[in-house]
Amino acid sequence: MIREDQLSIRLSPNEEDKNNLRVDIVSTRKSDLAQIFIGKTPMEALPMIPRLYSICGMAHSYAAIQACQSLDDSRSSAIHEALCLNEMLREHVLHIALHWTKQIGTKAPRDQMPVLVQAFEAISLKLLAYAQFDSQPKEKLEAALLVAKLDRITELLDALFFGHALKGWKDLKTSLDLVVWCGDDNGIIARMINQSIRSDHQDIAAIEPAFLPDLSKQDWQQLLQRNKGSAFCDQPDWQDAPHETGSLQRQRQHPLIRALMPAGKANLLARQTARILDLLSVMAQLRDQLKALDGYNAAPILLQKNGAGVGVVETARGRLVHAIDLQDGLIRHWSILAPTEWNFHPNGAAAQSLSRLTPGPGLEEQARQIMLAIDPCIAFDLLDATGLGKGASYA
């Protein structure tokens, strides 16, 4: 039985292509959750968004606000962008702490993880005070306190994840640079990367990704207006094909990623490295954003009453889009297009990568590593139907 909001992945022999596995991906998640807001005003619906989405709640909120916001009002953007960057960084950190530690056979740093989480929450709570729809602080925001919290997060990540060698990542340009940096297995990241480098199966699932292009809001609006049914958001396509979004797509032009994809193919190592580069990029963006907010004075958000709007926000897992139609101040239509639906499309990046695997001992573990590298935002279940293993569920 498939649980609610879950991906079910079945790997089986492919009768039409003996060189690849057949991969069947079924999702029980439907994209029409926001239809509960039909007939409500934006001021009634928007405060409810973070309670509906336990993962990437800030990103969902900001995308919805953008979609409802008056075209000439950008005053609230800075505070919400900082909230989303903070959430994005936290998601990357939690992924490494929860999944990479398990993959390398160690435990998450339990003593320091609560400190990390508290620092993220402190930043979020302070910013949220300036993002409320009703009561907002009268005093201006002091960025120095938030930057100090981020400094503490950086110190902890340097010690716990990077083996006190975080600064060295800015100089990594080639695969040899990466091998040298990881040389002594010092830290969670070095051990994870070394495990992938030494693996004899890391290139099996390499594919040439079709990256989601940087579409404008007008492009998104036209695309979603033409496809208002939930079927499109459940299995989206651009120019009749699914595309990939996320860390690898954002970091694809980085010299290190280009060095790890010499033939344009992304393997497990390239995906893991892209996550680290993305983490560092988001951390730098958040620092700049927090500094720019010094002296920020809260301002009410201006919402439009009629028309169609689109909100686009980057999350740790990829691009999130909300499209909302308003008439006489009431919501008439609301579409949500999440990155998991792109990346885990039945013919998307995950399906293509999984199809390259070879049946036999270790198939489920290899498949699990691919799933976690591409990273769905819901639980998944793997079933090896090749006759050499059985499935297991993973959060």
From TrEMBL:
Keyword annotations: Magnesium, Metal-binding, Nickel
PANTHER family: HYDROGENASE EXPRESSION_FORMATION PROTEIN HUPK, HYDROGENASE-2 LARGE CHAIN
InterPro entries: Ni-dep_hyd_lsu, NiFe-Hase_large, NiFe/NiFeSe_hydrgnase_LSU
Gene3D superfamilies: Cytochrome-c3 Hydrogenase, chain B
Organism of provenance: Cohaesibacter gelatinilyticus
Keyword Kinase appears in the UniProt entry: no
Positions annotated to bind Ni(2+): C377
Keyword Transmembrane helix: no
Protein name: Coenzyme F420-reducing hydrogenase, alpha subunit
Cofactor(s) the protein requires to work: Ni(2+)
GO molecular function: nickel cation binding
Binding site for Mg(2+): I336
